[in-house]
Amino acid sequence: MKFAMACISAAVLSGLLAVDRVMAQEAWEQAAEEVNRELDQPALIEKGRYLAIAGDCQACHTRAGGAPFAGGRPMKIPLLGTLYSSNITPDIQQGIGGWSLEEFDDALRRGIGRDGRNLYPAMPYDSYSRISDDDIKALYAYFMFGLEPVHDTPPANKIRRALSARWPLAIWNFLFAPGEPFTPDPQRSAEWNRGAYLVQSLAHCGECHTPRGIAFQTKAHNETDKGFLAGGPVLDGWQAYNITPHPISGIGQWSSEQLTRYLKTGHVNRLAQAGGPMAEAIENSFAKMTDGDIAAMVTYLRSIPPIDSGEKYPRQSLGSPATQVIIKRGNTLAIDRSPNSRSDGARLYLGLCASCHGVDGTGSRDGYYPSLVYNSTVGAKSDHNLRQVILHGISRTVGGEEIMMPGFASELDEGQRKRLLEYLRRQFATPSKGDAAAQN
Protein backbone atom coordinates (compact mmCIF):
# COMPACT_ATOMS: atom_id res chain seq x y z
CA MET A 1 0.00 0.00 0.00
CA LYS A 2 2.78 2.39 0.99
CA PHE A 3 4.64 1.49 -2.20
CA ALA A 4 1.53 2.22 -4.29
CA MET A 5 0.99 5.56 -2.56
CA ALA A 6 4.62 6.44 -3.13
CA CYS A 7 4.27 5.62 -6.82
CA ILE A 8 1.13 7.74 -7.07
CA SER A 9 2.84 10.65 -5.29
CA ALA A 10 5.84 10.38 -7.58
CA ALA A 11 3.58 10.32 -10.62
CA VAL A 12 1.67 13.38 -9.40
CA LEU A 13 4.91 15.23 -8.66
CA SER A 14 6.31 14.31 -12.05
CA GLY A 15 3.12 15.51 -13.68
CA LEU A 16 3.23 18.81 -11.81
CA LEU A 17 6.84 19.36 -12.81
CA ALA A 18 5.95 18.63 -16.40
CA VAL A 19 3.08 21.12 -16.22
CA ASP A 20 5.43 23.68 -14.64
CA ARG A 21 7.91 23.20 -17.48
CA VAL A 22 5.20 23.61 -20.07
CA MET A 23 3.86 26.72 -18.35
CA ALA A 24 7.38 28.14 -18.01
CA GLN A 25 8.09 27.44 -21.67
CA GLU A 26 4.85 29.13 -22.67
CA ALA A 27 5.72 32.11 -20.48
CA TRP A 28 9.18 32.34 -22.08
CA GLU A 29 7.72 32.11 -25.58
CA GLN A 30 5.14 34.77 -24.76
CA ALA A 31 7.86 37.02 -23.35
CA ALA A 32 10.01 36.47 -26.42
CA GLU A 33 7.10 37.50 -28.64
CA GLU A 34 6.96 40.86 -26.87
CA VAL A 35 10.54 41.67 -27.83
CA ASN A 36 10.79 44.22 -30.62
CA ARG A 37 12.72 42.15 -33.15
CA GLU A 38 12.55 44.86 -35.79
CA LEU A 39 15.45 46.47 -33.95
CA ASP A 40 17.70 43.44 -34.45
CA GLN A 41 19.89 45.29 -36.94
CA PRO A 42 23.71 45.21 -36.96
CA ALA A 43 24.18 48.97 -37.35
CA LEU A 44 21.72 49.74 -34.56
CA ILE A 45 23.29 47.13 -32.27
CA GLU A 46 26.74 48.62 -32.86
CA LYS A 47 25.41 52.10 -32.09
CA GLY A 48 23.90 50.75 -28.89
CA ARG A 49 27.19 49.10 -27.94
CA TYR A 50 28.93 52.47 -28.14
CA LEU A 51 26.17 54.20 -26.19
CA ALA A 52 26.45 51.56 -23.46
CA ILE A 53 30.15 52.42 -23.25
CA ALA A 54 29.34 56.13 -23.01
CA GLY A 55 26.85 55.30 -20.25
CA ASP A 56 29.40 53.13 -18.40
CA CYS A 57 26.72 50.47 -17.90
CA GLN A 58 29.26 47.71 -17.35
CA ALA A 59 30.78 49.33 -14.25
CA CYS A 60 27.63 49.09 -12.14
CA HIS A 61 26.13 45.95 -13.65
CA THR A 62 29.21 43.74 -13.29
CA ARG A 63 30.42 42.37 -9.98
CA ALA A 64 34.06 41.58 -9.29
CA GLY A 65 34.93 38.38 -11.13
CA GLY A 66 31.47 38.14 -12.68
CA ALA A 67 30.26 38.09 -16.27
CA PRO A 68 29.78 41.51 -17.89
CA PHE A 69 26.32 42.98 -17.33
CA ALA A 70 25.17 40.01 -15.20
CA GLY A 71 24.72 42.26 -12.17
CA GLY A 72 25.41 41.55 -8.54
CA ARG A 73 27.71 44.48 -7.79
CA PRO A 74 27.04 45.85 -4.28
CA MET A 75 26.38 49.56 -3.91
CA LYS A 76 26.30 51.00 -0.41
CA ILE A 77 23.81 53.85 -0.21
CA PRO A 78 23.99 56.17 2.83
CA LEU A 79 21.11 55.57 5.27
CA LEU A 80 19.39 53.14 2.88
CA GLY A 81 21.55 50.02 2.87
CA THR A 82 23.18 47.91 0.16
CA LEU A 83 21.72 47.54 -3.31
CA TYR A 84 22.85 44.90 -5.80
CA SER A 85 22.79 45.76 -9.48
CA SER A 86 20.48 43.77 -11.73
CA ASN A 87 21.27 41.31 -14.51
CA ILE A 88 20.76 43.20 -17.79
CA THR A 89 21.85 40.44 -20.16
CA PRO A 90 19.12 38.98 -22.44
CA ASP A 91 18.59 35.97 -20.19
CA ILE A 92 14.84 35.46 -20.26
CA GLN A 93 14.56 34.38 -16.61
CA GLN A 94 17.14 36.35 -14.66
CA GLY A 95 17.85 39.14 -17.12
CA ILE A 96 15.82 41.36 -19.42
CA GLY A 97 15.45 38.93 -22.33
CA GLY A 98 11.68 39.18 -22.41
CA TRP A 99 11.36 42.94 -21.98
CA SER A 100 9.57 45.03 -24.55
CA LEU A 101 11.04 48.32 -25.77
CA GLU A 102 8.46 50.18 -23.69
CA GLU A 103 9.42 48.31 -20.52
CA PHE A 104 13.11 48.95 -21.19
CA ASP A 105 12.34 52.65 -21.72
CA ASP A 106 10.32 52.86 -18.49
CA ALA A 107 13.17 51.41 -16.47
CA LEU A 108 15.91 53.47 -18.06
CA ARG A 109 14.26 56.88 -18.26
CA ARG A 110 11.51 56.72 -15.64
CA GLY A 111 12.79 54.36 -12.99
CA ILE A 112 9.87 51.94 -13.23
CA GLY A 113 10.60 48.22 -13.26
CA ARG A 114 8.84 45.61 -15.39
CA ASP A 115 6.74 44.64 -12.39
CA GLY A 116 5.54 48.23 -12.03
CA ARG A 117 7.58 48.91 -8.90
CA ASN A 118 9.73 52.02 -8.68
CA LEU A 119 13.48 51.48 -8.92
CA TYR A 120 15.87 52.99 -6.42
CA PRO A 121 17.62 56.05 -7.92
CA ALA A 122 21.00 54.37 -7.50
CA MET A 123 20.18 53.57 -11.11
CA PRO A 124 20.68 57.08 -12.53
CA TYR A 125 17.36 57.33 -14.36
CA ASP A 126 17.07 61.01 -13.46
CA SER A 127 20.08 61.56 -15.76
CA TYR A 128 19.09 58.89 -18.26
CA SER A 129 15.71 60.59 -18.64
CA ARG A 130 17.52 62.96 -21.04
CA ILE A 131 18.51 60.17 -23.43
CA SER A 132 16.87 60.58 -26.83
CA ASP A 133 14.25 58.18 -28.21
CA ASP A 134 16.60 57.03 -30.96
CA ASP A 135 19.38 56.25 -28.50
CA ILE A 136 16.98 54.31 -26.28
CA LYS A 137 16.14 52.11 -29.27
CA ALA A 138 19.83 51.55 -30.00
CA LEU A 139 20.58 50.63 -26.40
CA TYR A 140 17.64 48.23 -26.38
CA ALA A 141 18.88 46.61 -29.58
CA TYR A 142 22.33 46.12 -28.09
CA PHE A 143 21.21 44.61 -24.79
CA MET A 144 18.66 42.36 -26.47
CA PHE A 145 20.56 41.18 -29.51
CA GLY A 146 24.21 42.14 -28.99
CA LEU A 147 24.94 40.24 -25.79
CA GLU A 148 24.98 36.61 -24.77
CA PRO A 149 22.45 35.75 -22.03
CA VAL A 150 23.90 34.96 -18.61
CA HIS A 151 21.76 32.86 -16.30
CA ASP A 152 22.85 34.44 -13.03
CA THR A 153 20.76 35.76 -10.14
CA PRO A 154 22.16 38.75 -8.21
CA PRO A 155 21.83 38.75 -4.40
CA ALA A 156 18.77 40.30 -2.79
CA ASN A 157 19.04 43.93 -1.69
CA LYS A 158 19.81 44.58 1.96
CA ILE A 159 17.59 47.55 2.75
CA ARG A 160 16.63 48.92 6.15
CA ARG A 161 13.16 47.63 6.89
CA ALA A 162 11.81 51.11 7.58
CA LEU A 163 12.93 52.21 4.11
CA SER A 164 12.02 49.09 2.14
CA ALA A 165 8.64 50.36 0.85
CA ARG A 166 8.77 51.43 -2.80
CA TRP A 167 5.76 53.75 -2.96
CA PRO A 168 7.67 56.78 -1.53
CA LEU A 169 9.92 56.58 -4.60
CA ALA A 170 6.98 57.69 -6.75
CA ILE A 171 6.83 60.87 -4.67
CA TRP A 172 10.62 61.23 -4.96
CA ASN A 173 10.35 60.94 -8.73
CA PHE A 174 7.57 63.52 -8.88
CA LEU A 175 9.57 66.01 -6.82
CA PHE A 176 13.10 65.49 -8.09
CA ALA A 177 13.36 63.54 -11.36
CA PRO A 178 13.12 65.90 -14.36
CA GLY A 179 11.72 63.32 -16.76
CA GLU A 180 12.39 65.23 -19.99
CA PRO A 181 14.75 64.33 -22.86
CA PHE A 182 17.61 66.69 -23.66
CA THR A 183 16.67 69.68 -25.79
CA PRO A 184 19.48 71.20 -27.90
CA ASP A 185 20.20 74.91 -27.46
CA PRO A 186 19.88 76.54 -30.90
CA GLN A 187 22.17 79.36 -29.77
CA ARG A 188 25.04 76.94 -29.21
CA SER A 189 27.27 74.97 -31.56
CA ALA A 190 26.69 71.34 -32.51
CA GLU A 191 29.82 70.38 -30.53
CA TRP A 192 28.58 72.18 -27.39
CA ASN A 193 25.17 70.49 -27.65
CA ARG A 194 26.76 67.08 -28.12
CA GLY A 195 28.92 67.65 -25.05
CA ALA A 196 25.97 68.87 -23.00
CA TYR A 197 23.93 65.83 -24.04
CA LEU A 198 26.67 63.39 -23.07
CA VAL A 199 27.55 65.05 -19.74
CA GLN A 200 23.93 65.44 -18.66
CA SER A 201 22.57 62.09 -19.85
CA LEU A 202 24.67 59.06 -20.79
CA ALA A 203 27.87 59.99 -18.92
CA HIS A 204 25.68 61.11 -15.97
CA CYS A 205 28.51 63.21 -14.54
CA GLY A 206 26.14 65.08 -12.25
CA GLU A 207 25.26 61.93 -10.31
CA CYS A 208 28.65 62.06 -8.59
CA HIS A 209 29.88 65.61 -9.15
CA THR A 210 26.77 67.57 -8.09
CA PRO A 211 25.71 68.25 -4.48
CA ARG A 212 22.81 66.25 -3.03
CA GLY A 213 19.83 67.44 -1.03
CA ILE A 214 18.17 66.20 2.15
CA ALA A 215 16.36 63.43 0.25
CA PHE A 216 19.64 62.52 -1.48
CA GLN A 217 18.37 64.10 -4.67
CA THR A 218 20.70 65.74 -7.17
CA LYS A 219 20.33 69.47 -6.61
CA ALA A 220 21.03 70.49 -10.22
CA HIS A 221 20.63 68.80 -13.58
CA ASN A 222 22.24 71.16 -16.10
CA GLU A 223 24.21 74.37 -16.40
CA THR A 224 21.13 76.53 -15.79
CA ASP A 225 20.66 75.09 -12.26
CA LYS A 226 22.66 76.43 -9.34
CA GLY A 227 25.38 74.10 -8.15
CA PHE A 228 25.68 71.89 -11.22
CA LEU A 229 28.95 69.87 -11.08
CA ALA A 230 30.16 71.81 -8.01
CA GLY A 231 31.24 68.63 -6.20
CA GLY A 232 29.29 65.75 -4.76
CA PRO A 233 28.87 63.86 -1.50
CA VAL A 234 31.10 61.07 -0.21
CA LEU A 235 29.98 57.79 -1.76
CA ASP A 236 31.65 54.53 -0.76
CA GLY A 237 34.47 56.57 0.74
CA TRP A 238 35.20 58.56 -2.44
CA GLN A 239 34.28 62.15 -3.19
CA ALA A 240 33.79 63.65 -6.66
CA TYR A 241 35.35 67.10 -6.95
CA ASN A 242 34.13 70.42 -8.28
CA ILE A 243 34.62 70.24 -12.06
CA THR A 244 33.23 73.65 -12.98
CA PRO A 245 35.71 76.09 -14.61
CA HIS A 246 36.28 78.03 -11.39
CA PRO A 247 40.04 78.79 -11.28
CA ILE A 248 40.43 77.98 -7.56
CA SER A 249 37.68 75.55 -6.56
CA GLY A 250 37.28 73.80 -9.90
CA ILE A 251 39.33 72.95 -12.96
CA GLY A 252 39.52 76.42 -14.46
CA GLN A 253 43.32 76.32 -14.53
CA TRP A 254 43.37 73.05 -16.44
CA SER A 255 43.93 73.46 -20.16
CA SER A 256 41.63 71.78 -22.67
CA GLU A 257 44.50 69.48 -23.59
CA GLN A 258 45.03 68.46 -19.95
CA LEU A 259 41.34 67.79 -19.39
CA THR A 260 41.17 65.76 -22.61
CA ARG A 261 44.21 63.72 -21.62
CA TYR A 262 42.77 63.08 -18.16
CA LEU A 263 39.49 61.78 -19.56
CA LYS A 264 41.26 59.58 -22.09
CA THR A 265 43.99 58.19 -19.83
CA GLY A 266 43.30 59.08 -16.20
CA HIS A 267 46.74 60.66 -15.88
CA VAL A 268 48.18 64.13 -16.33
CA ASN A 269 51.76 64.49 -15.17
CA ARG A 270 52.20 66.82 -12.19
CA LEU A 271 48.46 67.39 -11.97
CA ALA A 272 46.04 64.49 -11.55
CA GLN A 273 45.71 60.70 -11.47
CA ALA A 274 42.36 58.91 -11.46
CA GLY A 275 41.47 56.34 -8.82
CA GLY A 276 38.36 54.65 -7.49
CA PRO A 277 35.09 55.23 -9.39
CA MET A 278 36.68 57.80 -11.69
CA ALA A 279 39.36 55.32 -12.74
CA GLU A 280 36.59 52.85 -13.55
CA ALA A 281 34.74 55.45 -15.60
CA ILE A 282 37.88 56.22 -17.58
CA GLU A 283 38.85 52.58 -18.07
CA ASN A 284 35.38 51.36 -19.08
CA SER A 285 33.94 54.45 -20.72
CA PHE A 286 35.83 57.65 -21.51
CA ALA A 287 39.00 55.94 -22.78
CA LYS A 288 36.88 54.04 -25.33
CA MET A 289 34.85 57.00 -26.57
CA THR A 290 35.66 58.85 -29.78
CA ASP A 291 37.96 61.84 -29.76
CA GLY A 292 35.09 63.93 -31.08
CA ASP A 293 32.82 63.06 -28.16
CA ILE A 294 35.55 63.72 -25.60
CA ALA A 295 36.29 67.07 -27.26
CA ALA A 296 32.58 67.93 -27.11
CA MET A 297 32.45 67.11 -23.39
CA VAL A 298 35.51 69.27 -22.75
CA THR A 299 33.94 72.15 -24.68
CA TYR A 300 30.79 71.91 -22.59
CA LEU A 301 32.56 71.52 -19.23
CA ARG A 302 34.68 74.59 -19.88
CA SER A 303 31.59 76.67 -20.67
CA ILE A 304 29.37 76.04 -17.63
CA PRO A 305 29.12 78.64 -14.83
CA PRO A 306 32.13 78.52 -12.46
CA ILE A 307 31.22 77.84 -8.83
CA ASP A 308 33.27 78.87 -5.82
CA SER A 309 33.33 76.12 -3.17
CA GLY A 310 35.35 78.19 -0.71
CA GLU A 311 38.89 76.90 -1.28
CA LYS A 312 41.78 79.37 -0.86
CA TYR A 313 44.15 77.62 -3.25
CA PRO A 314 43.73 75.35 -6.28
CA ARG A 315 44.07 71.75 -5.08
CA GLN A 316 46.75 71.08 -7.70
CA SER A 317 49.01 73.95 -6.50
CA LEU A 318 49.93 72.84 -2.98
CA GLY A 319 52.87 71.17 -1.28
CA SER A 320 56.65 71.30 -1.18
CA PRO A 321 59.33 68.64 -1.78
CA ALA A 322 60.15 66.76 1.41
CA THR A 323 63.79 67.82 1.70
CA GLN A 324 63.81 67.17 5.47
CA VAL A 325 63.64 63.40 5.01
CA ILE A 326 66.55 63.07 2.59
CA ILE A 327 68.78 61.10 4.94
CA LYS A 328 71.32 58.35 5.05
CA ARG A 329 70.38 55.01 6.53
CA GLY A 330 70.76 55.04 10.30
CA ASN A 331 70.72 58.82 10.66
CA THR A 332 68.16 60.57 12.81
CA LEU A 333 65.50 62.47 10.92
CA ALA A 334 65.96 66.22 11.08
CA ILE A 335 62.36 66.64 12.22
CA ASP A 336 62.77 64.35 15.26
CA ARG A 337 62.01 66.11 18.54
CA SER A 338 61.23 63.24 20.89
CA PRO A 339 60.64 59.46 20.82
CA ASN A 340 56.96 60.19 20.10
CA SER A 341 57.58 62.93 17.57
CA ARG A 342 55.68 63.63 14.38
CA SER A 343 58.44 62.01 12.36
CA ASP A 344 56.67 58.65 12.70
CA GLY A 345 54.54 59.60 9.68
CA ALA A 346 57.67 60.52 7.76
CA ARG A 347 59.23 57.15 8.58
CA LEU A 348 56.10 55.39 7.35
CA TYR A 349 56.33 57.42 4.16
CA LEU A 350 59.96 56.44 3.66
CA GLY A 351 59.17 52.77 4.21
CA LEU A 352 55.98 52.50 2.16
CA CYS A 353 55.90 55.31 -0.40
CA ALA A 354 59.34 56.69 -1.15
CA SER A 355 60.48 53.82 -3.38
CA CYS A 356 57.95 54.93 -6.01
CA HIS A 357 57.12 58.55 -5.22
CA GLY A 358 60.68 59.51 -4.33
CA VAL A 359 62.23 60.42 -1.01
CA ASP A 360 61.20 64.03 -1.59
CA GLY A 361 57.76 63.13 -3.00
CA THR A 362 58.31 64.46 -6.53
CA GLY A 363 57.88 61.08 -8.23
CA SER A 364 59.56 60.15 -11.48
CA ARG A 365 60.29 62.67 -14.20
CA ASP A 366 57.96 61.03 -16.72
CA GLY A 367 55.15 60.95 -14.17
CA TYR A 368 54.73 57.18 -14.22
CA TYR A 369 55.26 57.41 -10.47
CA PRO A 370 53.21 60.52 -9.69
CA SER A 371 54.50 63.51 -7.80
CA LEU A 372 52.75 64.19 -4.52
CA VAL A 373 53.68 67.85 -4.86
CA TYR A 374 51.06 69.76 -6.87
CA ASN A 375 48.86 66.68 -6.82
CA SER A 376 45.13 67.40 -7.10
CA THR A 377 44.14 64.43 -4.90
CA VAL A 378 46.67 65.04 -2.14
CA GLY A 379 45.93 68.78 -2.16
CA ALA A 380 42.13 68.50 -2.11
CA LYS A 381 40.17 70.25 0.63
CA SER A 382 39.05 66.91 2.10
CA ASP A 383 41.25 63.86 2.59
CA HIS A 384 38.61 61.24 1.63
CA ASN A 385 40.15 60.23 -1.68
CA LEU A 386 43.71 60.25 -0.37
CA ARG A 387 42.59 58.00 2.48
CA GLN A 388 40.97 55.59 0.00
CA VAL A 389 44.14 55.47 -2.08
CA ILE A 390 46.23 54.64 0.98
CA LEU A 391 43.81 51.90 2.01
CA HIS A 392 42.91 50.35 -1.34
CA GLY A 393 45.45 51.62 -3.85
CA ILE A 394 44.78 52.39 -7.49
CA SER A 395 44.21 50.10 -10.45
CA ARG A 396 43.29 51.07 -13.97
CA THR A 397 44.14 49.69 -17.40
CA VAL A 398 43.94 52.04 -20.36
CA GLY A 399 45.17 51.23 -23.85
CA GLY A 400 46.68 47.98 -22.63
CA GLU A 401 48.83 49.75 -20.03
CA GLU A 402 48.15 48.84 -16.41
CA ILE A 403 48.66 51.44 -13.71
CA MET A 404 48.73 49.98 -10.22
CA MET A 405 49.46 51.16 -6.71
CA PRO A 406 49.06 48.69 -3.84
CA GLY A 407 46.80 49.47 -0.91
CA PHE A 408 48.01 49.24 2.68
CA ALA A 409 44.79 48.47 4.54
CA SER A 410 46.17 45.16 5.80
CA GLU A 411 49.60 46.51 6.72
CA LEU A 412 48.74 49.60 8.76
CA ASP A 413 46.72 49.88 11.92
CA GLU A 414 44.42 52.85 12.43
CA GLY A 415 47.04 54.84 14.32
CA GLN A 416 49.62 54.36 11.59
CA ARG A 417 47.12 55.35 8.91
CA LYS A 418 46.35 58.56 10.74
CA ARG A 419 50.03 59.42 11.18
CA LEU A 420 50.85 58.70 7.54
CA LEU A 421 47.88 60.71 6.35
CA GLU A 422 48.78 63.58 8.67
CA TYR A 423 52.32 63.64 7.30
CA LEU A 424 51.19 63.56 3.67
CA ARG A 425 48.71 66.37 4.21
CA ARG A 426 51.17 68.51 6.19
CA GLN A 427 53.97 68.08 3.66
CA PHE A 428 52.12 67.91 0.34
CA ALA A 429 48.74 69.61 0.91
CA THR A 430 49.73 72.92 2.47
CA PRO A 431 50.67 76.08 0.59
CA SER A 432 54.33 76.81 0.05
CA LYS A 433 55.77 79.94 1.60
CA GLY A 434 55.42 81.72 -1.71
CA ASP A 435 51.76 80.77 -2.04
CA ALA A 436 51.01 81.84 1.52
CA ALA A 437 52.78 85.18 1.01
CA ALA A 438 50.85 85.81 -2.19
CA GLN A 439 47.58 85.02 -0.43
CA ASN A 440 48.38 87.48 2.36
What does this structure look like?
The protein is mainly α and 440 residues long. The chain is 41% helix and 6% strand. The strands form 4 sheets. The chain has a 3-stranded antiparallel sheet with strand order 1-2-3, with no helix packed on it. Strands 4-5 form a two-stranded antiparallel sheet. A two-stranded antiparallel ribbon has the order 6-7. Strand 1 (74-77) and strand 2 form a beta hairpin. Helix 2 (42-54) packs across helix 6 (133-145), helix 8 packs across helix 12 (291-301) and helix 10 (256-265) packs across helix 12 (291-301). The radius of gyration is 26 Å and the shape is globular. The relative contact order is 0.09.
Quick structural gist:
This protein has helices spanning 2-34, 42-54, 57-60, 101-110, 125-128, 133-145, 167-176, 190-202, 206-209, 256-265, 276-284, 291-301, 343-352, 354-357, 384-392, 414-428, 433-439; strands spanning 74-77, 81-84, 158-159, 234-235, 238-239, 267-268, 272-273, 394-398, 401-405. The protein is mainly alpha-helical.
